[in-house]
Structure prediction request, 118 residues.
Amino acid sequence: MTTLSQIREATNIALGANISVKSRARNIVYARIIYAAIARKRVSTSLFEIGQEVNKDHSLIVHYLKVFPDLKKYADFNEMYGKVISELNKSHTSSQDKVTCNNVSVGCVCFFPTFPTS
Prediction:
């Protein structure tokens, strides 16, 4: 399960910005909007908690979520969004829950048993 701090860190790493600072620079604001959209989609938590993670009010998070679909129309914004999703997926797969089998840690292994048919 993805947490708000993981999304914040993935956004910071992917875009080379600190989204928790007090700044109105376009790249920082775009990064916060991307963070808010991903957080709202992947984590079931309140707008207050999403905003609290980046030192912003819940009403600003509502605004971010409102303008997100309009910004998705622009190629540079989509590129930024793609970088964050890639970073988040990369960090999520590297920190996936491990399964221990005979004291050996292995990645998540999913299999479906087959049952004999008569």
